[in-house]
Amino acid sequence: MSRVKLLSLQVLVALVALGLWHIGSTIPFGTGANGKPFYLLPQFFFSTPGAVIGRVFTMFADGSVYAHLWITLVETVLAFTIGASLGILIGFWFARKPLVAAVFDPYVKMMNALPRVVLAPIFALWFGLGIWSKVWLGVTLVFFIVFFNVYQGVREVPQVVLQNARMLGMSERHLLRHVYWPAALSWVFSSLHTSVGFAVVGAVVGEYLGSSKGLGYLIHQAEGVFDVTGVFAGMVILMIFVMAIDFLVTLIEKPLLVWRPGETKTV
Amino acid sequence: MTGALPAVQLNGVSVVYALAGGGRYEAVQPVDVRVAEGEFVAILGPTGCGKSTLLNIAAGLMPPSSGESVIYGEKLAGLNSVAGYLFQQDALMPWKSARDNVAIGLEVAGMARANALAAADSMLAKVGLAAFGDRYPHQLSGGQKKRVALAQVLVRRPKILLMDEPFGPLDAQTRLIMSELLLDLWQADRKAVMFVTHDLDEAIALSDRVLIMSAGPASRIIGDFPIPLPRPRNIAELRGEPEFHRLHALIWNALRDEVRKTYGLTSAGSAA
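Predict the joint structure of the above. Result:
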């Protein structure tokens, strides 16, 4: 299928969905029992696509959204950086020291089994309502993904590659730098989209449950006053935010993973 | 060569594995192997006879259950640092380009990166991959990967070459070309070579001496045949010569029964 055809079909899906939403929320569908016009999608619950898009534009135009975007971005970046660093460090440590891994194994499993959202109130208590309670919530989510991937990556270096590297004269330090590290990094990168996504989840859920800034706060505020247009506008902005971050991640990982087998293109 | 210490001596080396159930599995009975300086020795045997195990012991990758491995007169403890090992499986680092894969052995030995890369490039040219230095392993064919692996081993100028069925996974034509390449490179600076294979033609064509191992378990060396074919050799022509066929028949006679044992066949009339 050609690019143009694919793109037009994709746009068509959006238009149909928005069109149905518009029709359901603005064109009355007969008369209700109380004599008032009946809407399939009452505006009180569903708003209208026009109002939502208008609100998004207003929020960007008057600049009120930027402070919230910035806070969520800072929380996401901090959560990802701290979570990934801890995951890489501890993943390496466990993979190289089987005894440590064996001792901590049940506790790692227990921590990972806990739905992290329940930690949010505790973290708000411990770290306050500022950004750090959100950052640490994100860290608990990102950490486990990166940790498991690094652990797996280091342990699954093929035996023959290791033996070959040793025969080429590599010391433990060389092995770490030239064999274990690149092997682990490729696993981290393959899970990058997931772990960055979880950093956003941590930030937004934390904001939602208690904060004074951020996209999660925006949505929560709008919900509190039954401002459905505001809720949907917040969701749209959140979607754009996550897609922008995902796009950046794709840009970063591409040159770093050139050595991995992908589909070979013929010209 | 006269009076020089042998490159590799395996003295009474045996391999016994402890089984999970508590028993013992004797893979290799005590054997003696001697590879002189500059000598090309092929070790030939049926699948699973423990020939690769002997190579791993000479490389220092595993300790023998008994006996010792002596390299240039010194008892081997730890890895054999004067040996290069060409593995049967693909052992290149997939995250490094062909050039970096070859250069890394020199870099970790302390050579400056620029010099190491220059040496890698000239080695890659010698194995016919001058234009492929920037490729990653997954962008190379099986034969090309073997060439990179060969360059990776040779660029460090090891005194001893250990090769574990290096061309086993390649197709017949590529094998022939790789064997010729190996002989050409070897001819230039005759290192001591231990070459493990299950291919009799390959063993005769390449080596100065062919050792035959019996089928496992408890395998041992049951034959030691000198190959007095003149060098330098042309492998393709060699296979048509009467001396080649005489050696082939002689060694195959010794090998056949062992191969049959591996497949559970009784040695019905070994004088066929």
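The interface with chain B takes residues 158, 160-161, 163-171, 174, 178-179, 182-183, 186, 258-261, 264 of chain A (CB under 8 Å).
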